[in-house]
Structures are given as structure tokens and as C-alpha cells.
């Protein structure tokens, strides 16, 4: 069942170009968005997104899309906090629950909390027969196929793809998109599977970097904008399977505390495509290097050419649209965690203390 791969995680990382294309095929037809008729954001004034772990980081990435492209305010909660906080909800808003398994106890309980308090409960799930899918008003499958590895990989990128399409639908319904800019976004998304194949080909150089990363005690991940939640996801992935302590930060937050951790033993992984915020990130990187931190810059050819020369290591990614870069950059984040775990000899598919589906509070 591992189809020749050593681990389910490796197989699931490699499947991403195909499953993302599947999600796109389901929700985009004849060059137009093709979501169920109930997905109509015209009267929606706010979106509350609730999830745990990796699924919650997918929500944090999607918040940038809903807010920047659709102008729709988004609030995000971790499911275990949500219902105890007793958040005020409006009858005009939607609540959206993201879960690979559809069985996460906290997410399910949060969904039940919103019943009769919001206009619509939407589930973005991988398992269409799951409790969360069944109890929602509408379930949108992410098309990732069965995910076995405890560390979520292809579910994350399929969650992102499905949420990106939902954000585009919101933008369309709210009159925020010209037909031309919608077509441009859809063609940017359609390019992702092909770009992912190029990113997957970086596995060998990433494995070489991971040999050295495996020596670290602490690793920081930095990103700005929608790459910030990807930094959180990269850190979670590394923690889960290699047991190395890792934290993700917004690049601009570094000097408000975490920079105190930097010395020549701390690798700092900077997720920074050459986008309009790149120069700001470069100045944060320089602050790290001035304190002898070891920077691994993950960027495109232009970014590496402009800022890579003093870095400890660089990974050159294919060029990608600014908005959807986090979907593509999930690949090097996942591969780094995977190869670091291999270098450490930990159990990649069944990390200690973790379960695939957390069905208790
Ligand atoms: O099945 P769910 O998406 O609801 O699971 C949520 C989290 O438990 C899950 O994403 C967890 O953080 C993964 N182990 C991350 O790799």
C-alpha cells in the first residue's frame, strides 16, 4: 500500500500534485468555479473558522485570502478554546470547520456549539462520511484520498486548495473580482500541481540539508503574510516527527523576543518567495545573521540571487503566484521534516505520543 515508498508520509507528500489537481477538477469546471449552489456568500458578513493543529494553520493561511481577495472578515479559533470562550456569533455569519478526519472531538463539539447560532455550518473535510461532515449543513470534501501518516501533509495542501476556491467564490459573490482577475487566480491555482512536481524534485538536496538540521536542538521558522502560518505548520511538522523543538514566528515579530534565542547553533528557516514583502524579510534575516544564526532561505531564483549569498543554506523554488505560494511552499516544509526525521531515525508514520485522529477532548 505504500506503493514503493518507505513511509506513508513520503507517499502522501509525493501524491500532492495529483490530489490537488483532483480538488481543482471537482470545484472548477469549464474555467468557472463549480461549488454547490448553497455556497453563496452574498449575505454573509463574517466567517468564523475553527480547527485543530495543521487544519487550523490551513485556516490561518485562508484568512489572508478571504480578507485580501474577498474583503470578508475572518475570525479563527482553535477548537479546544472556541466553545469555552463563548464567542458571540451573528445570525448572518457562517461557521466553517476544517478537519481531515472529521472526527476530532474538539472540532465536533465546536460545530455543535454553533448550531442555531449562525446562518450556515460548513465542513471542509477529507472523510465525507465523518461525524463533522454529517452534522454540518454542507460538507465540502478536499479530495486528498486516505491519509495514513500521522503527520498531515496532502490533507493540508488540499485543505488550502479547497479554501482558496471558497475564498474566490466569496470574492465573486461579493463583487470583488473582475472576470479577468478570477481567471488569473484560477490559472495560478491550476499551475500549482506542475510546480509541485518541480518542488518534489528538490527532495535530494533537502535531504542533504536535513542531515545537518538533525543536529539542532531548536529551529525557528519565519514567514510574513500568508507564509507566516506556513512557518507555524513547518515548525509543527518538524516537532511532530523529528522531536526537535521548533517554533514558527512572523518575521517581523523576531525582534520582540525570539531573537534572544539566536546563536550559531540555531537554524532559522525563512520561507520567503520574492514577493512585495521580501525586502522586509531580508532585513529580518540580516538581524539573524548578525547574531551568527544559521539561515536557510527558501525562495525562488530571484530571491536567492538577491539575498542568498550570506545564508547558511538556500533552497531554490519555482516561481509561483504571490497569493498561493503557501500551497507550494508546504512541500519543502514537509520534506525538511521528513528527511530530518529519517536522519534521526525516528518513527515517521507513527510518532510517539500522537494519534491520527484525536477523538477525546
Ligand atoms: O483530523 P483533523 O484535521 O481534525 O486533525 C487535526 C489535528 O489533530 C491534526 O492536524 C494534527 O495536528 C496533525 N498530526 C498534524 O500533522
List keywords for this structure.
361 residues; binds 5-amino-5-deoxy-1-O-phosphono-D-mannitol; glutamine-fructose-6-phosphate transaminase (isomerizing) activity; five-stranded parallel beta sheet; alpha/beta; single chain
How would you sum up this structure in a few lines?
It is built from 14 helices and twelve strands. The protein is of the alpha/beta class and 361 residues long.
Description:
There is one protein chain. The chain is α/β, with parallel strands linked by helices and 361 residues long. It is built from 14 helices and 12 strands. The strands form 3 sheets. It has a 5-stranded parallel beta sheet with strand order 4-3-5-6-7, with helices on both faces. It has a 5-stranded parallel beta sheet with strand order 9-8-10-11-12, with helices on both faces. The chain has a two-stranded antiparallel ribbon with strand order 1-2. Helix 2 (16-27) runs parallel beside helix 7 and helix 2 packs antiparallel against helix 9 (192-200). The longest helix is centred in the middle third of the chain and has 20 residues, at 154-173. The model has no long low-confidence stretch (mean pLDDT 96). The structure holds 5-amino-5-deoxy-1-O-phosphono-D-mannitol. 5-amino-5-deoxy-1-O-phosphono-D-mannitol (M6R) binds at residues 52-55, 99-101, 104, 107, 150-152, 240, 354, 357-358.
Amino acid at each position: 500500500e505504500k506503493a514503493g515508498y518507505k513511509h506513508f508520509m513520503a507517499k502522501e507528500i509525493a501524491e500532492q500534485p495529483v490530489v490537488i489537481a483532483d480538488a481543482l477538477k471537482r470545484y472548477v469546471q469549464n474555467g468557472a468555479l463549480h461549488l454547490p449552489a448553497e455556497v453563496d456568500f452574498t449575505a454573509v458578513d463574517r466567517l468564523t473558522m475553527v480547527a485543530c493543529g495543521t487544519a487550523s494553520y490551513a485556516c490561518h493561511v485562508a484568512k489572508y485570502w478571504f480578507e485580501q481577495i474577498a474583503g470578508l472578515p475572518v475570525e479563527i479559533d482553535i477548537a479546544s478554546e472556541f466553545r469555552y470562550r463563548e464567542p458571540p456569533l451573528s445570525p448572518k455569519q457562517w461557521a466553517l470547520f476544517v478537519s481531515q478526519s472529521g472526527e476530532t472531538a474538539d472540532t465536533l463539539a465546536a460545530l455543535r456549539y454553533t448550531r442555531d447560532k449562525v446562518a450556515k455550518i460548513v465542513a471542509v473535510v477529507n472523510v465525507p462520511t465523518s461525524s463533522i461532515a454529517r452534522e454540518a449543513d454542507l460538507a465540502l470534501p478536499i479530495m486528498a484520498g486516505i491519509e495514513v501518516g500521522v503527520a498531515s501533509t496532502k490533507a493540508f495542501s488540499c485543505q488550502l486548495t479547497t479554501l482558496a476556491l471558497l475564498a474566490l467564490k466569496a470574492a465573486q459573490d461579493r463583487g470583488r473580482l473582475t472576470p479577468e482577475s478570477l481567471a488569473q487566480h484560477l490559472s495560478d491555482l491550476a499551475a500549482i500541481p506542475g510546480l509541485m512536481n518541480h518542488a518534489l524534485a528538490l527532495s535530494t538536496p533537502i535531504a542533504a540539508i536535513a542531515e545537518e538540521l538533525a543536529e539542532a536542538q531548536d529551529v525557528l521558522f519565519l514567514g510574513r503574510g500568508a507564509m507566516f502560518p506556513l512557518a507555524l505548520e513547518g515548525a509543527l511538522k518538524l516537532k511532530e516527527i523529528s522531536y526537535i523543538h521548533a517554533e514558527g514566528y512572523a518575521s517581523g515579530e523576531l525582534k520582540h523576543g525570539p531573537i534572544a534565542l539566536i546563536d550559531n547553533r540555531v537554524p532559522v528557516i525563512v520561507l520567503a518567495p520574492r514577493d512585495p514583502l521580501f525586502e522586509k524579510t531580508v532585513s529580518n534575516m540580516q538581524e539573524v545573521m548578525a547574531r551568527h544564526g544559521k539561515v536557510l532561505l527558501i525562495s525562488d531564483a530571484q530571491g536567492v540571487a538577491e539575498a542568498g549569498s550570506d545564508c547558511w543554506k538556500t533552497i531554490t523554488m519555482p516561481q509561483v503566484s504571490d497569493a498561493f505560494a503557501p500551497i507550494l511552499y508546504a512541500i519543502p516544509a514537509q520534506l525538511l521534516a521528513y528527511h530530518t526525521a529519517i536522519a534521526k531515525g525516528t518513527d515517521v508514520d507513527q510518532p510517539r505520543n500522537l494519534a491520527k485522529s484525536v477523538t477525546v477532548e
